[in-house]
Structure formats: structure tokens, C-alpha cells
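Q: C-alpha cells for this one, please.
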Amino acid sequence: ASWRWLSGLSALQVGDATVPFRPEWDRHRLTPRHTAYLRVAEGCNHACTFCAIPGFRGKFRSKAWGAVLEEAERLVASGVVELNLIAEDTNQYGQDRRDGRGLAQLLRELSALSGLRWLRILYAYPSYFDDDLVAEIASNPKVCKYIDMPLQHINNLTLLAMNRPPQAHTKALLHKLRDNIPGLVLRTTFISGQQCSTGKFIDTTRAVDPFWYHIISKCWKHAFLFV
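A: Here is the predicted structure, written as C-alpha cells:
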């Protein structure tokens, strides 16, 4: 470790945020026996202004193909029937490599495991849903028609300040997912601020688009506070 001095205050640098993967199949699981989380990537290359993850998780990097499959096989052999795929940006899996294998191919490979019943995608970024991935989610019976995708906000100025994809991009993506994946359930998060606290957040979405308002109002009815 080494010491750095910032504004007269000392800070301890404990190491690089971008570290190699370690085997995780033998970790102590806190989930019920039938379900488990399967990390497929680590880190993030985005620069959302409200988020510190890149600073302590490092740059985005996909876990090696063989390592993911080996861990999945071991988890299924231990009695797991549901795998929840996680990363900071799960649907970006494989895009930092050049072997052509992304999340769609991984879902296809994992679904071939005997004994596995469900695959669930958590923590997707509102991009990277190419036609192959959308088709795999729609057609693969083991892939839950459920996507966890934090949208964070709807107001374009706020999205710009957050350094997030603009409203038009996200609306087009949501229409694409809804039109191509029957029965799709969206789990999302929104970061509240001044607009939301004055009641203008929901009013703005109603004026923008009935579909968009429907999504946010449904989420709002089942909201919880995260600080």
C-alpha cells in the first residue's frame, strides 16, 4: 500500500480496482439452495455522474467463458435450478472480447445444462440489446421473461446531467423489448430528486407518452426507498 495526500488529508491506496477474477463456485451462499447468483462480468466503463462503481470495481471485463460454464455446472450439480446472472452491466457480457460470444450465446449454452430450469438477467444497462439477445430471451424457454434494467430517470436534462442514455433511446429500446418478448416483466429503479419531490416527475411522464407513463406509474406503485 502507498500513501497519497489530497487537500491536506491522507488517503490509503490499497490496490488496483481492476483485479483478476477469483473462483467463486465454492463460496458460502446466502440464497436458498434452489437459486444462486452467477457473476458473468465485473466493473463498468460508463461514467454516470451519480455512481462510484467504476472507481472501486474497475473497468468492465467479462469472466472467461470456461470459468462461467464451470461455475454454472458446479452450482447446478449442488441443487441449483435457477441462475441469476449478475454484473454491473450484464448484457454487455463478451463485448470486451473478440471471440463473438456474447450474452445470447451464453444463455444458449447455460440452458443446455440438465437440471437447470430458469435463467434470469439482472442489472442490464439500457443498451446492448441486439437482435440476437432479444430473440434468445424471447425464444429460450429457460430464460425468464424478466429483465432488471435501471432506467434512473425520464427527464432529458436530468439524464444528460447523469450522463445516461437520452429519453428517445430508452423509449425505443423499451418498445423493442415489449414488441418482441411477449409477457416481458421489467424491473427498474429511478433516482428521485427535486422534480419527483414536487410531483412533476410522474406528471411529466404522462405528458410524454402513455406507454412510458404506464411503465413508470406501475413501478411507482411498487416502489421502495433506497438511500
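A few notes: Residues 156 and 166 are 6 Å apart (CA to CA). Strands lie at 2-6, 9-13, 35-39, 41-42, 61-62, 82-86, 118-121, 143-148, 185-187.
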